[in-house]
Design goal:
The protein is an alpha/beta fold. It folds into two domains: about 1-30; about 35-390, Rossmann fold (3-Layer(aba) Sandwich), CATH 3.40.50. The protein has nine helices and 14 strands.
């Protein structure tokens, strides 16, 4: 009898510990039990392409991994789309071993869908269809300079503020080595990537129903196109430092000028390379007539390109809740406001959040991997609860 009572007591203690941990964490980064109701993977899109007599390959398909929490608190899942040189593992965990955004959002009660962009990682690259690979990110010129240690080169005014990468951000540091091992090459032509991402994520939405689309960096242009093609199924867009500024790419060149715009019209449709719906309709992108602001809002910000007035409206993005998130120390900090301004001019209400204005400091471009990644995920979750779950409209600026 004593042994039986002791067993019951031990079980109750264990149960109390588990319940206490579960109740106290919310979206915390603890190892409290996470109950998954359903998980798995599938592919969307794809087409057969003949490559030889009686032989063929499949191209354009997109790998999707999903997890649905047992306690789902929000009506719409989140689709997480990685940026250039990256894969879905950006969101699975951090290179120093903490829980990633996928788990953070699961703990907050969202169903989560992770994708590998077509032609990358588990969405196979087909050279017969996509052409030559783009060069993968190089350690010094790409990963260190822009992602992990921008403060070392000081190419833009905010770079010196970077403090949140977990480690030195250089070769030989174990955290950097883990991150650098994850870098991949991809399709060279950005317009091809936009087209493939738009079609594949539209197919995913057709399969799973309404969802929130979260993009990062290079995939930002695809987010606008996805909403343009499925405005009734995209219930919100979270643009984590979404792509380059409108019309022309910007290069960081260091003091005293800091910035230099490309001579090319890199995004002729304003925020995309591919056509997007305007009202009145635009037959040719030349009709948008980009014009550069005379003066920057602040000395540490770039001047922005906008449409010539009267501005056309982005017809299918109107009414979609949009959040743009920028890190205090990121190379996007000088220009993300330009994307926000462009959307506003085009009749699209949006909110541009600079993390430092919410007490989150020192953050770089790979904010889902940095030391304060959980705080950022929590901020996004609160914003989605307010503007998507509860449908509180975003006021026009």
């Amino acid at each position: 009898m004593k042994n039986r009572n002791r067993l019951i007591y031990d079980c109750l203690v264990v149960f109390a510990i588990i319940m206490t941990a579960g109740c106290s964490t919310g979206t915390s980064n603890s190892r409290a039990p996470l109950v998954i109701a359903e998980q798995g993977f599938f592919f969307v899109g794809g087409r057969y392409v003949p490559v030889a007599k009686d032989d063929y390959i499949m191209a354009d398909q997109m790998y999707v991994h999903y997890q649905i929490p047992h306690e789902k608190k929000h009506p719409y899942p989140i689709i997480l789309i990685h940026g250039g040189g990256q894969t879905a593992n950006n969101f699975e965990s951090t290179p120093d071993g903490r829980e990633g955004w996928a788990t953070n959002f699961l703990r907050a009660g969202f169903a989560v869908y992770l994708v590998d962009q077509p032609g990358r990682a588990r969405s196979p690259y087909q050279p017969e269809v996509y052409g030559p690979l783009a060069n993968g990110s190089r350690a010094k010129a790409g990963v260190e300079q822009r992602f992990t240690a921008p403060q070392q080169q000081n190419l833009y005014p905010q770079a010196r503020l970077h403090t949140q990468w977990p480690g030195s951000g250089a070769k030989g540091d174990p955290v950097f080595d883990q991150f650098f091992a994850s870098q991949v090459s991809g399709i060279t032509d950005g317009a091809v990537s936009e087209k493939l991402n738009q079609a594949a994520v539209a197919a995913l939405l057709d399969k799973i129903g309404p969802a929130i689309v979260l993009t990062h960096s290079m995939s930002g242009t695809s987010g606008w196109l996805i909403a343009d093609s499925r405005p009734n199924l995209v219930k919100g867009i979270v643009g984590i430092e979404p792509s380059s500024p409108p019309f022309r790419n910007l290069e960081e060149i260091g003091p005293p000028d800091w910035f230099r715009y490309s001579r090319n019209l890199d995004k002729p449709w304003g925020i995309t390379r591919l056509p997007i719906a305007y009202n009145p309709p635009v037959k040719s992108p030349e009709e948008l007539k980009p014009v550069l602001e005379e003066k920057a809002d602040r000395p540490d910000l770039t001047r922005c390109y906008r449409q010539s007035e009267p501005a056309r409206k982005l017809a299918n993005l109107v009414g979609v809740p949009i959040l743009i998130v920028s890190g205090e120390a990121s190379f996007h900090a000088p220009w993300d406001h330009c994307t926000s301004k462009y959307l506003t001019q085009a009749g699209v209400a949006n909110e541009h959040v600079r993390l430092e204005d919410h007490g989150i400091h020192g953050t770089g471009h790979m904010m889902m991997l940095e030391k304060n990644s959980l705080e950022i995920a929590q901020l996004i979750a609160r914003w989605l609860e307010r503007h998507v779950d509860n449908r509180v409209p975003i006021p026009m600026k």
